[in-house]
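task queued by scheduler; priority normal; single chain, no ligands, no partner chains; default sampling; output format set to structure tokens
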Amino acid sequence: MLALDFTRGNGLIPVIIQEQSTGEVLMLGFMNKEAWKKTQEEGRVWFYSRSKKRLWMKGETTGNILLVRSVAVDCDRDTLLIQVKPEGVVCHQGTKSCFQALEEKKND
């Protein structure tokens, strides 16, 4: 199992979720050791909800799960980049991604 450093974020590490086929960043979540273990075991992305203070599997109520395709870790071993195949929309507001551009920069 990949040795991650959960000590810097009070037991949580940030996880960037990226669509494997397009490279689009879909969301940012957090994992504790248990969420990381379940993600590896099941091949579906699990998070730790800071607001609910519990584990949750993305899509547990909507069915819009995230299937793990690859995992990369940063050089400090305290952030993950998980490429996924999403089954359905990712954002709870019904959009493909949780990220929306604030403004487009124009090239001159």
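post-processing summary
- The domain at 13-86 is CATH 3.10.20.810 (Ubiquitin-like (UB roll)).
- The longest helix spans residues 33-42.
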